[in-house]
Structure formats: C-alpha cells, structure tokens
Design a protein that fits this description.
Elements: E1 3-4, H1 6-27, H2 33-63, E2 68-69, H3 71-125, E3 158-160, E4 163-165
Parallel strand pairs: 1-2
Antiparallel strand pairs: 3-4
Amino acid sequence: MVRRSRLATASFLLALIPWLYVTAIFHAPTTWLLTLWCYGVLCFAFCLLTAILAIVAIVRIVRSSNRLTGCWLAGCALVLTLAGALFLAALYAPGYITSRQKSSKQRCRHNIKLIDGACQRYLTERTNPLPITAVSELVPTYLKDEPKCPLGNGKPYSISNFVVICPMLREHPDHSIDNN
C-alpha cells in the first residue's frame, strides 16, 4: 500500500508560514513593526524546524522502499523554507548590523563620560592635581576597573589635559562626546 508521508505534508504546510509573514510585513501599519519583528524571529525558528522536518521526510521516503510518496512535497518544503530563511536573513541583517554599531558607539560614549566624571572627582579632591596621562591612574580610587572601547580590541582610553580620548577615534570619529 502506497501512502503519502504525513511528515512531508506537515513540512510543506510549515514552509508556508514564513511566506505569510513576509506578505504581512509589506501590508502592515508601521505601529506593528515591533510585533512583526518578534514574529519574524519566530518565523525564522519555523524555517529551521521545517527544514529539519523536510530532510527527515525525504530520508524516510527514500528508505521506505516505495511504500511512502510525497518526496516532491518535502522537496518543495525544503526549497520554500530555505528561500524564506534567506529572505528573512536579508531583511533583518542590515538592521542588526546598524544596531550593533550604534550600541558600541553608545557604550564608548558612556565609558568616556564615566572616565570624565572620575577625572572631575580627581580634580575636585586635590588641591594641586598632577596631570593624568592614563586611565589606569584613576583605578581603583575613582573607577572600579579600567573601561575599554568596545571596538578598541582592549586598547585603553587616553587622557590629555583632562580630556578623554577614545583609542578608535581616527577610525570612528563618532566615538566622542562632542559629536551628538
């Protein structure tokens, strides 16, 4: 008796979910974007699950010695799933990269403000303050530990005339407090 594999049918139906999401993105109002982003992550997980189910279905159909059919259905599910996953990745990759860059810039500015505050406390507490040339001179009295720029690969911040300078300022001019 020849019967269609239920796993192949299920994987094909699951493969349609990311494409419903993709159509919803282009027709949804902008107020739904955060909700749609969460659903996008969920759809990407569905893509992975569907790809695994489709591969398992194909393997079971091939091993069943002609008792199960639906190999083309599972193959279509695999192709739809991979295309959906690639589309979702292309849709979200630019936003992810931009948010990472913005986050590192904000962390660097926070570190600069933290070091600047420690320098101000140093100047306030001393009657004849000596010039500080390195952030390590403020540790542990004014700073718990020495902050590093997130993009600086462990390079310390420098201080010149009580002005904090990011080690990556040449490559990333936005890593300063002056540029808001």
